[in-house]
Design brief:
single chain; two-stranded antiparallel ribbon; mainly alpha
């Protein structure tokens, strides 16, 4: 066994809530046998097991803590899709804390909830496990986009693919539904922004692909949004912006010849994400009926894949996407 992974459950750091001093003897005069009293059992649920080097690993924790952590990761994923795909550090910490409290409350694990509200180090240790998943969730989305970019965009071989990817990045043509000529050259359909096949497919993957997908786990969010607006369910702006950012990252990678070393992690693409949020918010403000129709159509198109089984920076750059936008011919009913 790796020393780094060695765990001692009987000796815990005081700051993690461990207590190895409680024992009972069933018969007077006999050697004591270790038993957890009811109070000790309660405290142990909210205890964290550390490696010998002081690390806290998800799979080392007790079952209830693992379940809370796993559910909290889904809550944070939901936040990325519905609220903010690139939260700032302070906001991210608060999101993680609220996710833990919500999950502990739902599961009725009051010892964990109480400790979350009173022990900052405990919050920090649990939060680090969730925070580590945030860039991974975005990274997985970008990898999905890279895997499918060639097929959806007809990129072909490396040299021609590089040029084709650069053309799609120009004026953000990649966010539109595309039509291809006999030479596989793409032309954007201006009345269908954010309705390209790859974007729809990636949204399907995130929302409907498995029982743990967001639209399955958090269906009430879509119902609530639909009821509030009196309209069909819509894809959330943050999710659509995240997916568009992933496609941008994939095409940028392709335009550079698909190098083996390419940084998909961190906040490298946060400005692209923020641009797409601003673009969508502007479209919502300028043409609300058409915006809501588009967002509902995108949700429906992604949902149909489930049933069928098919599986830039600066204000000047922001204006480029609108050069291709055919607002007059977009549907609004």
């Amino acid at each position: 066994m790796d020393v780094e992974d060695a765990v001692s459950e009987s000796i815990e750091d005081r700051s993690t809530g461990g207590d190895s001093s409680e024992f009972q003897s069933d018969n007077e005069g006999t050697a004591p046998t270790w038993k957890l009293t009811s109070d000790a059992k309660t405290r142990s649920i909210a205890s964290l097991i550390q490696t010998e080097s002081g690390k806290v690993k998800l799979l080392d924790q007790n079952l209830e803590t693992r379940k809370v952590l796993q559910s909290a990761i889904m809550e944070v994923k939901c936040h990325l899709f519905f609220t903010n795909g690139y939260p700032e550090l302070v906001d991210k910490n608060q999101v993680a804390l609220q996710a833990f409290i919500v999950v502990a409350e739902k599961r009725g694990v009051h010892p964990i909830k109480e400790r979350l509200q009173s022990d900052e180090r405990y919050v920090s240790q649990l939060g680090s496990l969730v925070d580590a998943r945030v860039p991974i969730l975005r990274h997985e989305l970008k990898e999905d986009a890279c895997v499918h970019a060639n097929g959806y965009f007809h990129l072909g071989h490396t040299d021609t693919g590089k040029a084709a990817a650069r053309r799609l990045l120009d004026k953000l043509a990649y966010i539109y539904a595309l039509k291809f000529d006999i030479n596989n050259k793409a032309s954007p359909i201006g009345k269908k922004p954010y309705q390209g096949e790859l974007l729809i497919f990636l949204i399907y993957q995130q929302l409907f692909h498995s029982s743990r997908s967001v639209a399955i786990k958090f269906v009430e969010h879509f119902i609530e949004i639909a009821n509030n607006k009196g309209q069909p369910p819509e894809v959330p702006i943050p999710l659509l912006a995240l997916v568009a950012t992933a496609v941008y990252a994939a095409l940028l990678w392709k335009s550079q010849g698909s190098p083996s070393k390419f940084n998909f992690t961190g906040n490298l693409f946060s400005e692209t994400y923020n641009y797409h949020v601003r673009f969508l918010e502007k479209l919502k403000k300028d043409a609300p009926a058409k915006f809501h129709c588009m967002m509902a159509d995108i949700y429906e198109a992604a949902q149909k894949l489930q049933y069928s089984g098919a599986a830039a920076s600066g204000h000047a750059a922001e204006l480029e996407a609108f050069e291709l936008l055919d607002l007059d011919n977009m549907e609004e009913d």
